[in-house]
């Protein structure tokens, strides 16, 4: 296997060839009661779903699809102008009961396995930090995983995703909702359902209050994210 970060390989039949280079990572939760159940589902040709990696709550990393192949994890999705997210991304499933079976903190062992794996993927494919996203970011009308308890702040400390902007003194630049939606689209979100898009943005960037409403704080956070990208501090 040539990858000490992968503990086991259980190959899934659910993949096809990529037409694009890898430029994104999508994080998911499995929303199942065990890792073995999730593995069985992703290896069942009937299910038509897969991911490149599954990380169990105990921290075991299982490879299901080679990174140069197109796994089937994103479904109908959109990010930064592109709809074929599967074709451009690596999908990582986190073994977790999800909101369906009792939403809870992600395990420490799982996080500790995710960090070096993600670091290696981001480095190998030169993935922009703004393209390390959750499933809810790319499918806001359908998905809420990995959800508001996923520790994005901790991942950002390792420079593996964008950090939440802290200094918001530049305030509230979008003085109407249309301008906010336009900025949200420019950052990457599908805004065809505005309320859902705002909820997805909040779930990722302001998880303590997810109400789908555009308030001053979410405006300021989005403004700083875009400003940092435009100034070349992130990409
Ligand atoms: Zn998902």
Short recap of the structure:
This protein is of the alpha/beta class. It contains eight helices and eight strands.
Chain-wise SSE layout:
Blueprint: E1 8-9, E2 15-17, E3 24-29, H1 35-42, E4 53-55, E5 61-63, E6 69-71, H2 85-88, E7 89-94, H3 108-125, E8 132-134, H4 135-138, H5 152-157, H6 177-187, H7 194-205, H8 216-230
Parallel strand pairs: 1-5, 3-7, 3-8, 4-7
Antiparallel strand pairs: 2-6, 4-5
This protein binds zinc ion (ZN).
Description:
The chain contains 8 helices and 8 strands; from the N terminus they run E-E-E-H-E-E-E-H-E-H-E-H-H-H-H-H. The model has no long low-confidence stretch (mean pLDDT 94). It starts with 7 loop residues before the first strand and ends in a 5-residue tail after the last helix. It is 33% helix and 12% strand. It is globular. Helix 6 (177-187) packs across helix 8. Residues 28, 135, 143, 145 line the site of zinc ion (ZN). Residues 28, 135, 143, 145 line the site of zinc ion.
